[in-house]
Every structure is written in C-alpha cells, then in structure tokens.
Amino acid sequence: MLRSLVDKLEKEERLSGAEFERLIAGRTPELAGYVFEKARKARERYYGKKVFIRGLIEFTNYCRNNCLYCGLRRDNRAAERYRLTEQEILECCAEGHALGFRTFVLQGGEDPFFADELLCRIIRSIKKDFPDCAVTLSLGERDAESYQRFFDAGADRYLLRHETADEEHYARLHPPSQSPGERKRCLFSLKDIGYQVGCGFMVGSPYQTPKHLARDMLFMQDLEPHMVGIGPFIPHHATPFAREPAGTLELTLFMLGLTRLMLPSVLLPSTTALATIDPKGRELGILAGANVVMPNLSPPGVREKYLLYDNKATTGAESAQAVRELKEVMKALGYSVVVDRGDFVPPKSQPERPNESGLKSQPEPQPGSQPELRPKSS
Predict the structure, then answer these.
(1) Which of 55, 62, 111, 250 is 20 to 30 A off residue 138, Cα-Cα?
(2) What are phi and psi of 151, to 5 degrees?
C-alpha cells in the first residue's frame, strides 16, 4: 500500500496531507530504498550525474531574532560575534572562483548593520568581478522593497527556510514576535519578484510529528520552490532546546527522497547538518536524491563562530586539495562535481490536477514560478 503511494507521488508529483502522513509514519528501510531509487532517477532526468557546488560565505553572525533552536539567537551572550568587511567577502569569492565555484551564497543572521545600500553595493561588486557567477542570498525576512533592490543589484537566488509550515508548531520554536505568516509572505514575494527561491525545514525538531512534516510537504506543493534545504535539527548548548534529541539521519534522508519525487527538478542540497550527524551523511544525501553541496568559503578564523548548532562538521573547501577530495568522493558514488552556476531547470511538464469539481485540468501558471534566468554573462 505504501509503495503505491510512492508510485503515485512519482507520477502525479503530489499527495494529500493524509497520504504524506501515512508514508512518513509507516516508513521502513525497504520503503526508503524504494524511494531513493526513484528519487535518483527523477534527479537524473533533469541534471544527469551532475553535482553542483555552492561557495558558502557566512558573513555575519549577529541576529536580531531569538529563535529557540538557533545558536546565533540574540540572547546567546556567549556567542563571539563578527562581521566580514566588503573586501573580506570579495576575497572569499576570489578564492572560491579560482577553485571552480560559480555560485556564492551570502548567509548571515538578520543583522541590521547590513542595510540595503551596503548589501546592494556588495552584490554589485561580486557581479562585476565575477560576471559568470550567481549570487544567492540567505538573510532572513526583509520587506518586498528590499528584496527588489537586491534583485535589481544582481542577486539571483534567495534562501529562506520556513522551518515548519504548521502555525502551532512554529509558535513552539519561535518567540511571539515572529510569525509563520510573515515568513510565507516573504517567500511568495521573492517568487513574484523573479528570484530562484529556496525554502526548507528542520527534521526532528522539538514537538514535531509526521503530521507537521506532511504539512511542510503540502506547503511546498503550493509554493513550488526552486530550491529546498532540509536538514536534521541539532541542539545547541546555549539555547532552550539544549537537551532535546537531534533529528535522525534516517528520517532526514527519507524527506529528501520524498521532496525529490514531489519536485523532480528542484535544487536539493545535501547539507552540512547531515555530515554533522553522520560522517557519510553528505554522500548519503546525494544517494537519496540531493544534487547540491555547499562547502564553506568563509575565512577559517570565523567558521567556529558561526554555530547554528553544536559540533558543526568541517566541510570547507578552502584549498584545492579539499575540492579534489570532494570530486573524488562524488566520483566514487557515480557523480561528478561540475564548474557551473547550476541554475534551476523548469519542469518539463506538470501533472494534471483535480479541480474543485473533481475533474482534471491543467494548473494555471503561478506568478514567478518559472523566473527568467539571467544569462551567465550578466
């Protein structure tokens, strides 16, 4: 019965919430293997055996928010805060470009110091110095006007993990000042502007149930993101959730596989958090359907200060040797790391979906669902 649901997901690229919940709650190692086999085939229809690398630059660990699970939370007085200068960011990009990176991910806490004008100047500088590269931002919640300014300055993609799509669950992970509705509004605004948009969620976060994960899948069915970041919850010692158990590798991999079947052309990272909970986590993520890895290009002196969770794995690519080793690991799995921006490939076709009358009809295009990608020379 559960295999038939996997077959349905592969064919129709969607399930009901009850069906997702049944799959997640009833999963077995055998069912997971079935999902992963189909997920690999789905990925290869769009991207072949390619694995894309993104150069992660963690440029500030200041954050105005106080999320209960995050080591960068405002109330963590023990955190050693830092901000990279514009020149330091450009130096990270230069080192990464020489190593073959063609996407740079500027990630940081929600730091008011980096106002729109400064961020736009940094984005323009990166695009000027490295015109063959994409710029991805991961800066949290901003207003639509700010997102538009960044896009006009040359930003190509934006990552904003929704963390959990269930409102009650969201409220148990965040202070009252933060709203799940606002986060979702930001994601749809980003799509309307024309970004390649990424959302994502934690697996195994406190109080999470299969129903919560099913709702994450339904939200992504609605959003139709171009990228999805899925990683296990890992506790940080200086947060209210310090004593909570971490999410499991097994369930995280299963959710990666389901996401690939639902969104077959999505860009799906095998995250550092996976490598943190298991030495082979990154490789297993690729075998579960992922096609992106994000080595750390941040200056070595600040990497230990950007701690979202404890015991963060060191997967940096600060040397040519490290990149060679990554290529060898992927080659052993049957995949190849490529020098490429690794842009989203729009779905070749969309399945018919039932309308309110129960009859099947083609969905109307969603605004921004297939953004016009900038040429590599932009």
Answers:
(1) 250
(2) -65, -45
Buried b (16+ CB within 10 A) or exposed e, 216-246: bbbbbbebbbbbbbbbbbbbbebbbbeebeb
The answer to whether 160 and 183 have CB atoms below 8 angstroms apart is yes
- Alpha-carbon distance 244 to 303, whole Å? 24
| Phi (first) and psi of residue 19, to 5 degrees | -70, -40
**Per-residue pLDDT reduced to its tens digit, 244-287:** 999 999 999 999 999 999 999 999 999 989 989 999 999 999 99
> Interior CA angle at 139 toward 88 and 50, to 5°?
80
| Token pair recorded at residue 315 | 């997967």
Neighbours of 368 (CB within 10 A): 19
Query: Per-residue pLDDT tens for 154-183?
Result: 999 999 999 999 999 999 999 999 999 999
Residue with token string 């979702």: 184
Answer CATH for 2-340 from 3.90.1720.10, 3.20.20.70, 3.40.190.80, 3.40.50.300: 3.20.20.70
The token duo for 375 is 């040429």
Task: Kindly give, in sequence order, each residue whose CB lies less than 8 Å from that of residue 327, ignoring residues fewer than 6 positions away.
Answer: 336, 337
Beta strand pairing call for 157-159 and 360-361: unpaired
> Can you tell me which residue has the tokens 């080192």?
95
Task: Name residue 151's amino acid.
Answer: F
Full-model pTM: 0.90
Cα separation, 57 vs 88, in Å, equals 10
